[in-house]
Amino acid sequence: MTILGFLAALFGLALVTALWVLLPLVRPDAGAEERGE
Amino acid sequence: MTVIGQAALLVALLASLWALLASILAVATRREPFLASAGRALGATFVLLALACLGLVRAFLADDFSLEYVADYSCRSQALVYKLTAIWGGQSGSLLFWATLLALFAGLTVVTTRRLPRQLVAWTFLVEAAVLVFFVLVSAVVDNPFRRLPGGIVPADGVGLNPLLRNPWMVAHPPALYLGYVGITVPFAFALAALATGRVDGAWLRAIRRWSMFTFTFLSLGIFLGAYWAYLELGWGGFWGWDPVENASFMPWLTMTAFLHSVLAHERRGVLKGWAFVLVILSFLLAVFGTFLTRSGIISSVHAFARTSIGWWFGGFLVLAAVLSFGLLLARLGALRPENRLDSLLSREGFLLLGNVLLVGLMLIILWLTMRPAFDELRTGVQSAVEPIVFTRATRPWFVLLLFLMGMGPVTGWRRVAPAVLLRRTLPPALGALAGGVVLFLLGAREPWSLAVFVAALFTVLGVFQALLADWRARRMHTGEGALVALGRLALANRRRWGAWVSHVAVVVMAVGIAASTAYEKKRVFESIAPGTALELDGYRLRYVQLEARNLPEYDGLAARIEVLRPGASTPDVVWPELRVYGGRERQQTTEVAILSTLLPRSPREMRRLGEDLYVIPAGMDPGTGRVSLEVIVHPGINWLWIGGILLLVGTHLAAFPAPEEVAEALADGVAARPVPAR
User: Fold this and answer.
1) Measured between CB atoms, does B154 come within 8 Å of chain A?
2) How many whole angstroms separate alpha carbon B475 and alpha carbon B372?
3) Number of folded domains in chain B?
4) Helices and strands (H, E) in chain A, number of each type
5) Which domain does A28 fall in, by range?
6) What's the pLDDT score for residue B661?
7) C-alpha angle B492/B494/B497, rounded to 5°?
8) ipTM
9) What is the pLDDT of residues B477-516, one digit of tens each?
10) Structural domain total, chain A
11) Are residues B589 and B487 part of one domain?
């Protein structure tokens, strides 16, 4: 159970982080929006 | 929650690695999306590390002794607050905490640098990400706080946090010091970014002004709280024992102090430009050096963690960071020529330069003495000890010179001061200080170094007072304001200058406390005394009454009731020195000293005892016979050290938040001071 929980947390967090971090590369205007441009 | 934390730490490593890669790509390609991605990765690293911290907190709260770190630093009977603070009680937890703070600061720079030149920002992210990768790597791979005990063992109870650390100061001292240490990374990252992009004008200094003050304030607060804590705990050598780890926090403080002063000279006069870079780089390296010192075990110290290989990771990082940052500095040496020449050494910038030299010199002496045992070990195979008195003897002339120099700031002006004018302004505080010194000598202050400190302190205080008086008079003459209104408005409009002067007065007040308490300390040991015995030391009359048992959930204690009659008082105060044995898997003993302070004298005769402490150490207690052994010490003036420390925080706070017109004035001065380009 602990190993499964760990793996689920690992992949879940990695996926969310990757989506969030890589978004400006896929949609270059994402960064501009953040800067209020 | 613990498994989420464990997973979050690994993902944080990936996120920080991506932050580094994306910022390298942003620097190389100058493409905004990479920079945006790097910024997001820094923010994500912080969120993930915060999750890891929460996971560890959860493990402590749930008494999850399957984790080695929890089993080592907590036990079932440990109070809730110390279960929470145990997160920075040991090595792996404190490294995770350090990395989390670093990620927080990196995330904050992402938010606060949106209007700065993009290439400068990209380089700043790159440096921050590189430092972050190192700390997260160490925390996730080399010394993971989520490591489980081998063989799936789950002990019934943990060892428990060292009882010395079960102290309210544990809540405040380490985080304050870490905020200071970690905060230096931001100015360091900006400095390297400025060097890398060639933008070595004042822009980077303006961008990090607040950060530098923040770092300096927390470093001061951390050291100050640590000194107070060490004073309360027996066996830590008093408020300052020149322990390697104490020195490791003091050395970056000295270079940060020098840095803040060199920034002033740079801002106003365009001089000491290269110095500012050297000092920031040194401060960062010294902060990491402190971590290396405690983790490598190359020097023995009361703060040292277990000897592990982790120290060599830090050693390697230190060498790499030093080579890269000083290499970059050397490569840019041509661009670091000062915009202005130093007109005269008899000027405020001249004295600032001298102060810088003294501060750095002091740091080098402390560094040399701290490292000497390790050098001796290399040479002879045996680690020698450098006694605290060696440090004191080597450093005190420098301290006294610095104290005098602090008084010169208020009496000098920028650019150049004619010797006759300087003499005229210096003479009143100097004569006042000398007269004060003679009076103190006649009153019995005969120890030469303490007398030198008292005279220097008086000189600085009188110098500041004279300058304030001149400002106040000038304002009243120009505006026709009332006395109090003029004073209040002066303080509000000149926060930066007042902040600096309050800080200088604070430091001399601290110096007076240190000099008085060390030079005029009185001590007596009373061996195996029976209940009812009367004792006497320096006018204090003590009577040991009886022993009392104190059994609390966390510890079993034995306390001695001692009635103390202060000199000239008619009713006694009661103090309780105590010996405690804490629960947990290993029963650990502590000695709790009792302190009676004289903060407000009750009669004029008691004036000389202002700020004095009576300090009672229980050396031994026999519950069978009721006999105790006590060491009683009188620390004259020690509380001035703490009062000065609080004043220093007020001063740095004032200086950190100047009135807008002051900033404009300083910038205008700086622009005016710079030569007009030929074309």
Assistant:
1) no
2) 54
3) 3
4) 2, 0
5) 2-34
6) 60
7) 135
8) 0.84
9) 888 888 888 888 887 777 888 888 899 999 999 999 999 9
10) 1
11) no
List pLDDT tens digits, range B292-309: 777 666 666 555 555 567
Of A36, A34, A37, A14, nearest to B36 by C-alpha is: A34
Q: Does B46 touch chain A (CB under 8 A)?
A: no
Cβ burial B243-274 (10 Å sphere, 16+ → b, else e): bbbbbbbbbbbbbbbbbbbbbbbbbbbbbbbb
CA B116 remoteness from chain centre: 30
Range(s) of the domain holding residue B626:
522-635
DSSP 8-class letter at B636? T
Owner of token pair 């959930």: B553
Supply angle C-alpha B298, B303, B304, rounded to 5. Answer: 30
Q: Name the residue facing A2 among B3, B36, B37 (closest C-beta).
A: B3
Task: Let me know if residue B562 belongs to a domain.
Answer: yes
- Has residue B385 been placed in a domain? no
Residue B221 falls inside a structural domain: yes
Beta strands in B479-611 (DSSP E): 522-529, 534-537, 540-551, 555-565, 573-575, 578-582, 588-592, 594-598
Residue B640's H or E segment, with its range, is helix B638-656
B195 CB-contact burial (10 Å; exposed 0-12 / middle 13-18 / buried 19+): buried
Inter-chain contacts counted by CB atoms under 8 A, chains A and B: 61
- The answer to whether the predicted template modeling score (pTM) of the entire model surpasses 0.95 is no
Residues 6+ apart with CB under 8 A from B385: B373
Q: Give the H/E segment covering residue B533.
A: none
Question: Is A25 within 8 Å of B37 when comparing Cβ atoms?
Answer: yes
Same domain membership, residue B202 and residue B152: yes
Chain B residues whose CB is inside 8 A of the A10 CB are: 7, 10-11
Looking at the structure, tell me whether residues B191 and B71 fall in a common domain. yes
Other CB atoms within a 10 A radius of the CB of residue B607 amount to 9
